[in-house]
């Protein structure tokens, strides 16, 4: 087992990893930018190293500075968290060259799934259902028009290196194609430095359902049930839950088998998430694979009673997976609480938190790095807390979440708490009768 792990991340995920390491008797190293000097992950780690100014490019994304921190602290492993360098194959390669264990998949596995076109080709070979679309990248707009005509409108254009909803355009009719193709390429180049674009059939009324998988160093891959991530805005998840209200035992078994096949196809090592689109007829299609732990991993932890970060570390240390299939017991739900104004197009709202009181009680969990007096920086992601509730049934879970949201007090910045309260009362949400378009015609009502 590792003696000391450096966490190449910040905020709540860094704190999350520190907690598990402490329970496992593993020393931790926090790295931080000058803007995060007062963050809790810096305070609770055994050691802390400043790696640069507030800019991510000069700190959390600066590989030489992170590796220098590894060297001066004698860490023997790196946990990348999520975001930043978590899915950067070059970073994993550098760790390998330095003889430092990267807690995650190998660089080769990451590259196979990091490029969406390569990932799709891999899934087709593995027998995992994929959305009909272009055979690789589009050469130009003319090529795209030919593909779109063949598979039928609407279609969706996607950046091959995309993520977080960037580099995506839905095209409803032929006349709109060229303009959207150009916009998609431009955004892809600006966001990812890669203007490669491919085209797929746009699945209408889709449900976004993902399967948590784990693979060890000996070829064994298992799944740990599903999460429903259909409540989202601009392809950014807001609420996740397990089990999915749309799921049935037969569909869960079929999708679970497909998720395991996806992992086996690349001899996957570590924790990962296989994401699917499921249409109204319960036909499902591979969308992408995230080769890291997800923001929403606590939802799965609550319904299978298993520490996923601990599992990550054990796998990286060479321990075999002992379980087979983990099915959800009870119901869990997570609301992402962001420093954003949901009634003003989700505009980021950095600033100083003048009052912070998180919810408590049976079946309530809050993962956060925030406290009264903490300053939400404009330099990083706007998520400030994850509120997770667990109960025996979905109905009870929603009631518990309503109570927990009422108790959650954050003053000084605008947050998404009021929106989550409103969603919990929405009849479509409560009935489970929703898909990824839920917020498209949602009536945002700011409370008095």
Going by CATH, the homologous superfamily of the largest domain would be: ATP-grasp fold, B domain
Q: Could you report the average pLDDT, rounded to the nearest whole number?
A: 95
Strand content: 25-35%
Tell me what the CATH architecture of the largest domain is. Answer: 2-Layer Sandwich
Number of domains: 3
State the helix count: 14
- The name CATH uses for the topology of the largest domain is D-amino Acid Aminotransferase, Chain A, domain 1
CATH class category label of the largest domain: Alpha Beta
SS-based class: alpha+beta
Rg over alpha carbons? 21 Å
Number of strands: 22
- Main β-sheet, in a few words? 8 strands, antiparallel
Q: Which spans of ≥5 residues are poorly predicted at pLDDT below 50? A: none
Give the strand line-up of the largest sheet. Answer: 13-12-9-10-11-14-21-19
The coarse overall form would be globular
Helix % is: 25-40%
Distance between the termini: 53 Å
């Amino acid at each position: 087992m590792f003696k000391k792990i450096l966490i190449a991340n910040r905020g709540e995920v860094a704190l999350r990893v520190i907690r598990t390491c402490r329970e496992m008797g593993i020393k931790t190293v926090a790295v931080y930018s000058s803007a995060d000097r007062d963050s809790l992950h810096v305070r609770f780690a055994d050691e802390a190293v400043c790696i640069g100014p507030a800019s991510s490019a000069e700190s959390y994304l600066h590989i030489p500075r992170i590796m220098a921190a590894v060297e001066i602290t004698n860490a023997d492993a790196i946990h990348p968290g999520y975001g930043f360098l978590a899915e950067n194959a070059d970073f994993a390669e550098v760790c390998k060259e330095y003889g430092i264990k990267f807690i995650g998949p190998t660089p080769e596995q990451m590259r196979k799934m990091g490029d969406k076109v390569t990932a799709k080709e891999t899934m087709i070979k593995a027998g995992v259902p994929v959305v009909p679309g272009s055979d690789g990248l589009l050469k130009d707009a003319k090529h795209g028009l030919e593909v779109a005509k063949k598979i039928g409108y609407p279609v969706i254009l996607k950046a091959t290196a995309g993520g977080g909803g960037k580099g995506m355009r839905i095209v409803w009719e032929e006349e709109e194609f060229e303009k959207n193709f150009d916009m998609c390429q431009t955004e892809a180049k600006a966001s990812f430095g890669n203007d490669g674009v491919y085209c797929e059939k746009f699945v209408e009324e889709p449900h976004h359902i993902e399967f948590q998988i784990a693979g060890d160093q000996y070829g064994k891959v298992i799944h740990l049930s599903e999460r429903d991530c259909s409540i989202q805005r601009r392809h950014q998840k807001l609420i996740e839950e397990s089990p999915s209200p749309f799921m049935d035992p037969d569909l869960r078994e079929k999708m679970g088998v497909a998720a395991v096949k996806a992992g086996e196809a690349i001899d996957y090592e570590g924790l990962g998430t296989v994401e699917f689109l499921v249409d109204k007829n319960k036909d499902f299609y591979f969308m992408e694979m995230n080769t890291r732990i997800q923001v929403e991993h606590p939802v799965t932890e609550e319904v299978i009673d298993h520490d996923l970060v601990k599992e990550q570390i054990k796998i990286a240390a060479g321990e075999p997976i002992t379980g087979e299939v983990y099915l959800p017991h009870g119901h869990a739900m997570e609301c992402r609480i962001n420093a954003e104004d949901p009634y003003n197009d989700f505009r980021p709202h950095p600033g100083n938190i003048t009052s912070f009181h998180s919810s408590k009680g049976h079946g309530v969990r809050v993962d956060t790095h925030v406290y009264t007096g903490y300053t939400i920086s404009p330099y990083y992601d706007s998520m400030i807390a994850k509120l997770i509730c667990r109960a025996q049934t979905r109905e009870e879970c929603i009631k518990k979440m309503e109570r927990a949201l009422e108790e959650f007090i954050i003053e000084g910045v605008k947050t998404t708490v009021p929106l989550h309260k409103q969603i919990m009362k929405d009849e479509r949400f409560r009935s489970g009768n929703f898909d990824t378009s839920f917020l498209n015609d949602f009536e945002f009502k700011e409370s008095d």
